[in-house]
Amino acid sequence: DVTVKYGEKEAPMQLTVIPPIVNLTATYTGGEIAKGEKIQGDKLQVTVICEGGSTLTIAADDENISYWVGEDPIQDPTNYVFDKVGEVEVTVKYKGRETVMTLTVADDAPTPSASASATSTATPTATATATAETSDGGLSIGAIAGIVGAVIVLGVIGACIFGKGKKK
Question: Please, which of 2, 63, 67, 97 could form a disulfide with 24 given CB 3.0 to 4.6 Å?
Fold first, then answer.
């Protein structure tokens, strides 16, 4: 904490003292970037490694950071459109130090599309024959269940075929 005085006025001020910078790292955790896309700013992390081992994470849009692709400076990495497929080296510079971050740029992936159509010209048919009889000449429970099931199936098929398009 520092107090700044000017004339009759004074104001407290907090300073952060950064030890000498030893190294710099830059990582992008957003995975592959598709050709024509931009970096996601929240996935870009620049870390300053200071003397004594302390580290400091710097915001991607910090005014002291500059980005370069080859000889071309990038004003804002979150607005830079990658138009080259493959590995792209981005040089990150901060207060006299620099590091190279390699990004993978994938070719444009086709947009998946799906279409489905179903047409049928066959008329569905179903038959059920009850052949199981009880000893007294009547139908068994299984045979009755089979006939009822067939009637229900035929009713559903008929409703689907003949009931389609009719409005009441």
Answer: 97
Rounded to whole angstroms, the Cα distance separating 168 from 154 reads 22
- Cα gap 42→29, rounded to integer Å: 9
Task: Kindly report each contact of residues 22-25 with a partner whose C-beta sits within 8 Å and lies 24 or more positions away, as own/partner.
Answer: 22/49, 22/50, 22/51, 23/48, 23/49, 23/97, 23/99, 24/48, 24/49, 24/92, 24/94, 24/97, 24/98, 24/99, 25/49, 25/99
